[in-house]
Amino acid sequence: MFISSSRGLTALAALALALTAACAPADSDGGSGSDSTADAAKAATSLSDCKPADLPLLTSGTFTIATDDPAFEPWFVDNDPTNGKGFEGAVAYAVADKLGFAKDDVTWVKAGFNQAVQAGTKSFDVDINQFSITADRAKAVDFSSPYYSAAQAIITLKDSSFAGATTLADLKDAKLGAQVATTSLEAIKQIAPSSDPLVYDDTTKAAQALQNGQVDAVVADLPSAYYLTSAELDGATIVGQFQPTTGESEKFGLLLAKDSALTPCVSLAVDALADDGTLAALEKEWLTQATDVPELK
Amino acid sequence: MTSPAGAGVSRRQLERDAYRRRRARSRAAVAVVSTLVVLGGLAVVVLQSPGWDRVRQTYFDVGDAKAVLPDVAEAFWLNIRLFLVAEVLILVVAITVAIIRVVPSPALAPVKLLAVVYTDVFRGTPTILVVFLIGFGVPALDLAGTPTSLFWLGVIALTLCYGAYVAEVLRAGILSVHPTQWASGRALGLSYAQTMRHIVLPQAVRRVTPPLLNDFVSLQKDTALLSIIGLVEALRVAQVDAGRTFAFTGYVVAACFFIVATIPLARLTDYLTVRSLRRENGI
């Protein structure tokens, strides 16, 4: 096949042009209201500046909230965020309510961990999925004010020799497992175990390994630990809890796109819920059992 | 196609040579210009995009890469060990299964049936499920004598999956050897086993070397799947780092290790392909 050089060149130039046009960056003003509303929401200093009409939403009039699938207890109940049950389900609707959304104005979408933290545009207004707030993460995404502070817990089998541990030092010789990309994995350094921890995609797989005897104990945040021992594992127990010292103690915040104009309003709503005692009440309602677990020194 | 210089060349031939030189030059020029236009255009589009800075910080940050490099390198050694051990076992399993499937002996019928079921099942099952079943399921059986080391459980899972693929590749190779080769071997007084060993297998293996190495390149990458049962290999280390920093540079660093490890295999494949073409076609 021989194309004469000039015709070949023209075709290539046309192709390059087409490519450039197809890949040209989309204008950023689509879909999220006019720039003036975004600026108003961004400068919000009180909840009265945050009415649904003023907010630069993904879909106007609708508050789009994301979480992972499946959504586990005690954060959600029956893997159905729309029922408003479970701690995060209830907090999400309380935040929406503070911002002036009716229950029907809230839409839920599914977003996995990596999807939520990817650079670029988001498919949600906010994501509530036990995201720990860290300074490093805050470089890539926005966080609201924290709605929960979690301790770390040690889970083991009831017949394990580590079930009677009363201090972190008692766990030094245990083979430990934790979920990747969690504060739990970082917190293992406080125990300074004699062998490297095993790392799992999620706590369900770590729990499998615990049941198989591949790890002696699993480190997870306290609410997940409660769920694991009550629902997923047979014959498992929470040995105790401890506050992680690496960095700040773990706090969960709602996740938003980096520099989202919604962040100030969502934070104001969370702050208001903390001030009026709603968060404490919801925590008591959905995470009460957390108080029975002894502290490991 | 060099033209001998000197008086013996006709005018027509000289014109022809001159034309060919001109054409070669203009083709080279077009290739250079088109490469510059297309790759340059792509580079401009990517580098000028409004999100490029964020993408660069997330995926291509030199500082992050340096920080994560020692950990990834150390973990990649585990990938290499997994790959090397699994590769040997896979070849053993695959040759056994392939030979069982082609041997015509009727007494072997039950074993042949097992071999067929094995290749069908393990080629059709997603590798990730096999890894789960072996990594979590076998220890859960709580049988004495089953391996407990995650390394060996991982190797077994990969061997089972890839053994089925490679067995089919080898079987195709054996079947592609012309029947006259068998007949000649037997006519020379060789037994069936001797014919297989000295006449057929050498030709078969040579013929399927490229697809075989293709499978092994793929195996190298699939060692990363073993992270799901708790093995902390290169990609998992990158993931741990990404979870800590929300930056994905660690993945790119791990990818570089995988690429660097597969390039020698790819070049070897190319070389063997060319060599076998040359030998078989007498070029």
CATH architectural designation of the largest domain in chain A = 3-Layer(aba) Sandwich
**How large is the share of residues in beta strands of chain A?**
15-25%
What number of structural domains do the residues of chain A give? 2
Question: What is the residue-mean pLDDT of chain A, rounded to a whole number?
Answer: 81
Query: Are there runs of chain A of 5+ residues with pLDDT below 50, and where?
Result: 1-6, 8-35
How many beta-strand elements of chain B? 0
Helix content of chain B: over 70%
Please, what is the CATH homologous superfamily of the largest domain in chain A?
Periplasmic binding protein-like II
The shape of chain B, in one word, is flat
Which structural class is indicated by helix and strand composition of chain A? Answer: alpha/beta
CATH level 3 topology of the largest domain in chain A: D-Maltodextrin-Binding Protein, domain 2
Radius of gyration of chain B: 27 Å
Chain pair with largest interface: A-B, 43 and 39 residues
Number of helices of chain B: 10
The helix/strand order of chain A is: HHEHEHEHEEEHEHEHEEHH
CATH superfamily of the largest domain in chain B: MetI-like
What would you say this structure looks like, in words?
The complex is a heterodimer of chains A (297) and B (283). Chain A has 297 residues and is an alpha/beta fold. Chain A has two domains: 37-149 and 251-290, D-Maltodextrin-Binding Protein, domain 2; 152-242, D-Maltodextrin-Binding Protein, domain 2, CATH 3.40.190. Chain A contains ten helices and ten strands. Chain A has helices spanning 5-23, 35-42, 87-98, 113-117, 135-138, 183-191, 203-212, 222-232, 263-275, 278-287; strands spanning 63-67, 106-110, 126-127, 142-149, 152-157, 176-179, 198-200, 217-221, 236-242, 251-256. In chain A, the strands form three sheets. Chain A has a five-stranded mixed sheet. In chain A, strand 1 (63-67), helix 3 and strand 2 (106-110) form a beta-alpha-beta unit. In chain A, helix 3 crosses helix 9 and helix 3 (87-98) packs antiparallel against helix 10 (278-287). The longest helix of chain A has 19 residues, at 5-23. Chain A is elongated. Chain B is an all-alpha fold and 283 residues long. Chain B has two domains: 11-48; 60-281, Orthogonal Bundle (MetI-like fold), CATH 1.10.3720.10. Chain B has helices at 11-48, 52-59, 62-102, 109-124, 127-141, 150-176, 179-187, 192-222, 234-245, 249-281. Chain B is flat, with a radius of gyration of 27 Å. Chain B starts with 10 loop residues before the first helix and ends with a helix. The mean pLDDT of chain B is 90. The chains are: A alpha/beta (297), B mainly alpha (283). Chains A and B meet through helix 1, strand 7 and helix 7 of A and helix 1, helix 2, helix 5 and helix 9 of B.
